[in-house]
Design a protein that fits this description.
The structure holds two protein chains of two kinds. Chain A is of the alpha+beta class. Chain A contains eight helices and nine strands. Chain A has a six-stranded antiparallel sheet with strand order 3-4-5-8-7-6. In chain A, helix 1 crosses helix 3. Chain A is elongated, with a radius of gyration of 21 Å. The two termini of chain A are about 30 Å apart. The relative contact order of chain A is 0.14. Helix content of chain B is about 30%, strand content about 35%. In chain B, the strands form three sheets. A six-stranded antiparallel sheet of chain B has the order 4-5-6-9-8-7, with helices on both faces. Chain B contains eight helices and ten strands. In chain B, strand 1 and strand 2 form a beta hairpin. Chain B is elongated and about 75 Å long. By secondary structure, chain B is α+β, with helices and mostly antiparallel strands. Chain B folds into two domains: about 60 residues, Arc Repressor Mutant, subunit A (Orthogonal Bundle); about 150 residues, Chorismate lyase-like (Chorismate lyase, 3-Layer(aba) Sandwich), CATH 3.40.1410.10. In chain B, helix 1 packs across helix 3 and helix 2 packs across helix 3. Classes of the chains: A alpha+beta, B alpha+beta. Chains A and B meet through helix 1, strand 6, strand 7 and strand 9 of A and helix 5, strand 7, helix 8, strand 8 and strand 9 of B.
Chain lengths: ~240, ~240
């Protein structure tokens, strides 16, 4: 509970970081950790906590609306929009595509910066590809109701290079290409962590700078344990994973 | 002060001697996470080793991930294990488990009029909900911070749970109900000042938040929030 005597929103007026970004980041942290009450969307209340002009608090709220943490109605009343959005079965974290589908949102995808390239030493160190292997690289952004949900960097093995001319392949989520949907037991390694996103990633996800988020590193293999696909996935903060045990 | 023994007659370069000794002291647990290494001027005054040599040693140690430097403050030991768990195992997401980990109760208070918690536990805001704050420690370093909210409907004994060393889910099931349903969600957030202090990280650093709700016949009896330091935690799923 936010108490005026013990404010949890603290700003540093000497910091180089604009106060509205500081306030937005603090509020975002409170919402994402469920440490808020109904006053969190009250402009005057937040202003009384941080003691700065109302216009700066309003700018902070606009950032939160942009990040889809807050919504705003026609009377300029703010409300928390961030909520449990995905419920997936029996403990399995499924794909971004599945989650968008579960939400009954319109799915769309953008593929860009695609090229064939040779695997260099730094990529070989990170993945199971070998230095010198020809791989196909592409970036993707997955949208739910036209809002970016995930940004991906994909590295396909030479056996699985999708036909760049084939638009239908681009429109499919990656696991359709490698057949994971047909065979959920396809050998894979997935690692999920929370990191500070780069400005570039936050821009792709339409999030404010310095936002943190989920980063998933995934490798998929064939039955002979040869790597088929390596993916870096960066999830939007409004993307949420819910597990049922 | 951390002491070194520098041998100028040795064939091993001085910068390498510093690196070797820091590595050894970390391995032998003589120095621990966040211990401060001597400054370049202290090295110069005590061991008569030039700042150039110390700079090189510290740069290499930083590249190797053994130390980190804060401008104007100094060089500190970076020796913190990363907690990893199977992402398919809900028990490990809600409460980090390992025989080495120790759960420490920080406080227990009665909370009321907490809008979020009343909403979550579906109790009236006049009812007293118990809030237990705990930290899971490994060698005195925090693995996770936990906030456990327990409904007044439950006669819960926190000490009994800690002593049982059981997964909270199994403990609740054994002591209170056999119809327990568990729903967890995870999200990404930033640390506020309080979380940063508890988790030994900086404000705004990434944190991994797990929310676990425990239901008995559709009535929520407890809610657990678990906060992991993002830089020292990951969850993995392996089907190879």
């Amino acid at each position: 509970m936010i108490k005026k005597k013990d404010p949890v929103i603290q700003i540093d007026k000497r910091s180089n970081e604009p106060v509205e970004i500081q306030i937005a980041n603090h509020i975002k942290a409170l919402v994402l950790t469920y440490k808020y009450d109904q006053n969190i969307t009250n402009l005057a209340y937040i202003q009384s906590l941080v003691d700065i002009e109302l216009s700066s608090v309003k700018k902070a709220f606009d950032i939160l609306v942009n990040d889809r943490i807050f919504g705003v109605d026609e009377y300029q009343n703010y409300y928390v929009t961030y909520q449990d959005v995905v419920r997936v079965g029996r403990g399995y974290v499924t794909s971004v595509f599945d989650n968008i589908k579960y939400l009954n949102q319109k799915f769309s995808m953008k593929v860009f910066d695609q090229k064939n390239m040779k695997c260099d030493r730094s990529l070989a160190k990170l993945t199971e590809f070998r230095t010198g292997d020809i791989i196909h690289y592409q970036k993707r952004i997955y949208y739910g109701d036209d809002q970016p949900k995930a940004y991906m960097e994909l590295y396909f093995s030479k056996d699985r290079i999708p036909n760049i001319e084939d638009k239908a392949v681009h429109e499919l989520p990656y696991y359709h290409i490698i057949g994971v949907d047909q065979n959920p037991k396809v050998p894979s390694y997935r690692k999920l962590e929370v990191i500070r996103f780069s400005d570039e990633v936050n821009a792709y996800l339409n999030q404010s700078i310095k936002s943190n988020g989920f980063y998933s590193q995934e490798s998929y293999f064939n039955e002979d344990k040869d790597i088929l696909l390596y993916v870096n996935i960066y999830l939007n903060l409004s993307y949420f994973i819910r597990l049922v045990g | 002060m951390i002491y070194f023994s520098m041998d100028k007659t040795s064939k091993v370069p001085l910068y390498k001697q510093i690196i070797n000794q820091v590595e050894m002291k970390i391995r032998n647990r003589e120095i621990k996470h966040l211990d401060q290494l001597p400054s370049e001027s202290q090295f110069e005054n005590i061991y008569h080793v030039s700042s150039f040599v110390v700079k090189k040693a510290y740069k290499d140690l930083e590249d190797m991930g053994y130390v980190f430097r804060i401008k104007g403050k100094g060089t500190f030991v970076q020796k913190r294990d990363t907690y990893s768990a199977n992402a398919f195992n809900l028990g490990e997401i809600s409460v980090p488990r390992s025989p080495e980990f120790r759960l420490k109760l920080l406080s227990q208070i009665e909370v009321d009029h907490d809008y979020q918690i009343c909403r979550l536990l579906k109790v009236s805001c006049d009812e007293k909900v118990m809030l237990y704050k705990l930290v899971s420690l490994n060698e005195d370093l925090p693995i996770a911070f936990l906030e456990l909210y327990v409904s007044p409907k439950l006669d819960f004994n926190i000490h009994s749970w800690i002593l049982s060393k059981k997964n909270i889910e199994k403990y609740l099931q054994q002591h209170y109900t056999n119809k327990l349903e568990v729903v967890s969600n995870i999200n990404a957030a930033s640390a506020d000042k309080i979380l940063a202090e508890i988790l030994y990280i900086s404000t705004d650093d990434p944190i991994f938040v797990a929310n676990t709700a425990f239901y008995d016949s559709d009535i929520q009896i407890a809610h657990l929030k678990t906060f992991y330091p993002g830089d020292y935690t990951y969850f993995e799923a392996i089907t190879i």
